[in-house]
Design brief:
- InterPro entries: ACP-like_sf.
- It comes from Nostoc piscinale CENA21.
- This is Carrier domain-containing protein.
- Helix 1 crosses helix 2 and helix 1 packs across helix 4.
- The chain starts with a helix and ends with a helix.
- It is globular and about 30 Å long.
- Strands 1-2 form a two-stranded antiparallel sheet.
- The chain is 57% helix and 4% strand.
- 29% of the residues are buried.
- It has one domain.
- It is mostly helical.
Length: 111
Protein backbone atom coordinates (compact mmCIF):
# COMPACT_ATOMS: atom_id res chain seq x y z
CA UNK A 1 0.00 0.00 0.00
CA UNK A 2 1.31 3.51 -0.78
CA UNK A 3 2.42 5.87 2.00
CA UNK A 4 -0.34 8.01 3.54
CA UNK A 5 0.26 11.14 1.37
CA UNK A 6 0.71 9.01 -1.74
CA UNK A 7 -2.41 7.03 -0.84
CA UNK A 8 -4.52 10.20 -0.68
CA UNK A 9 -3.14 11.33 -4.04
CA UNK A 10 -3.87 7.93 -5.60
CA UNK A 11 -7.40 7.92 -4.19
CA UNK A 12 -8.02 11.44 -5.50
CA UNK A 13 -6.83 10.43 -8.98
CA UNK A 14 -9.21 7.45 -8.89
CA UNK A 15 -12.11 9.62 -7.72
CA UNK A 16 -11.50 12.22 -10.44
CA UNK A 17 -11.20 9.57 -13.17
CA UNK A 18 -14.43 7.92 -12.03
CA UNK A 19 -16.26 11.26 -11.90
CA UNK A 20 -15.02 12.02 -15.41
CA UNK A 21 -16.44 8.68 -16.57
CA UNK A 22 -19.82 9.26 -14.90
CA UNK A 23 -19.99 12.79 -16.32
CA UNK A 24 -19.15 11.51 -19.82
CA UNK A 25 -22.05 9.06 -19.52
CA UNK A 26 -24.39 11.98 -18.85
CA UNK A 27 -25.27 11.06 -15.25
CA UNK A 28 -23.82 14.18 -13.74
CA UNK A 29 -22.29 17.58 -14.28
CA UNK A 30 -19.29 17.83 -12.02
CA UNK A 31 -16.53 20.25 -12.93
CA UNK A 32 -13.47 18.09 -12.30
CA UNK A 33 -11.17 20.83 -13.56
CA UNK A 34 -11.72 22.35 -10.09
CA UNK A 35 -9.91 19.33 -8.65
CA UNK A 36 -10.40 18.78 -4.95
CA UNK A 37 -12.88 21.68 -4.70
CA UNK A 38 -15.22 20.26 -7.36
CA UNK A 39 -18.74 19.90 -5.97
CA UNK A 40 -20.37 16.49 -6.12
CA UNK A 41 -23.50 16.98 -4.00
CA UNK A 42 -22.67 20.43 -2.66
CA UNK A 43 -24.05 23.52 -4.39
CA UNK A 44 -23.09 23.74 -8.03
CA UNK A 45 -22.58 20.03 -8.54
CA UNK A 46 -25.15 17.68 -10.00
CA UNK A 47 -25.28 13.92 -10.16
CA UNK A 48 -28.43 11.83 -10.43
CA UNK A 49 -29.06 8.76 -8.26
CA UNK A 50 -27.98 6.30 -10.95
CA UNK A 51 -24.84 8.35 -11.52
CA UNK A 52 -24.05 8.45 -7.80
CA UNK A 53 -24.46 4.70 -7.48
CA UNK A 54 -22.38 4.14 -10.60
CA UNK A 55 -19.71 6.51 -9.26
CA UNK A 56 -19.42 4.69 -5.94
CA UNK A 57 -19.32 1.24 -7.58
CA UNK A 58 -16.71 2.38 -10.09
CA UNK A 59 -14.58 3.86 -7.30
CA UNK A 60 -14.86 0.58 -5.35
CA UNK A 61 -13.78 -1.41 -8.42
CA UNK A 62 -10.90 0.90 -9.31
CA UNK A 63 -9.56 0.93 -5.74
CA UNK A 64 -9.69 -2.84 -5.65
CA UNK A 65 -7.94 -3.09 -9.04
CA UNK A 66 -5.24 -0.51 -8.26
CA UNK A 67 -4.71 -0.99 -4.52
CA UNK A 68 -6.01 -4.49 -3.85
CA UNK A 69 -8.40 -3.13 -1.21
CA UNK A 70 -12.09 -3.97 -1.09
CA UNK A 71 -14.45 -1.23 0.09
CA UNK A 72 -18.22 -1.20 0.31
CA UNK A 73 -19.08 2.45 -0.24
CA UNK A 74 -22.49 1.76 -1.75
CA UNK A 75 -23.65 -0.03 1.41
CA UNK A 76 -22.81 3.07 3.42
CA UNK A 77 -24.63 5.57 1.17
CA UNK A 78 -27.49 6.23 3.60
CA UNK A 79 -25.12 6.86 6.48
CA UNK A 80 -22.87 8.98 4.25
CA UNK A 81 -25.64 11.28 3.05
CA UNK A 82 -27.17 11.65 6.51
CA UNK A 83 -23.93 12.44 8.32
CA UNK A 84 -23.32 15.96 9.57
CA UNK A 85 -20.25 16.35 7.35
CA UNK A 86 -21.23 14.94 3.99
CA UNK A 87 -18.32 13.04 2.44
CA UNK A 88 -20.08 13.35 -0.91
CA UNK A 89 -20.04 17.15 -0.88
CA UNK A 90 -16.82 17.61 -2.88
CA UNK A 91 -14.01 15.62 -4.45
CA UNK A 92 -11.85 16.54 -1.45
CA UNK A 93 -14.35 15.34 1.16
CA UNK A 94 -14.92 12.08 -0.73
CA UNK A 95 -11.17 11.56 -1.11
CA UNK A 96 -10.66 12.14 2.62
CA UNK A 97 -13.51 9.75 3.49
CA UNK A 98 -12.16 6.96 1.28
CA UNK A 99 -8.59 7.46 2.52
CA UNK A 100 -9.90 7.25 6.08
CA UNK A 101 -11.80 4.07 5.20
CA UNK A 102 -8.61 2.49 3.88
CA UNK A 103 -6.57 3.57 6.91
CA UNK A 104 -9.28 2.57 9.40
CA UNK A 105 -11.21 -0.50 8.24
CA UNK A 106 -13.97 0.00 10.81
CA UNK A 107 -15.12 3.28 9.22
CA UNK A 108 -16.43 1.68 6.02
CA UNK A 109 -16.72 -1.84 7.31
CA UNK A 110 -15.54 -3.82 4.39
CA UNK A 111 -11.82 -3.95 3.94
Amino acid sequence: MPERADLRETVQEIVLACIEEVTAQGWGRIQIEQGEAANILAGGGFIDSLGLTSLLVTIEQDIEAELGITLNLTRKITEITLSSTNPLATVGTLTDYITNCINNATVCGGI
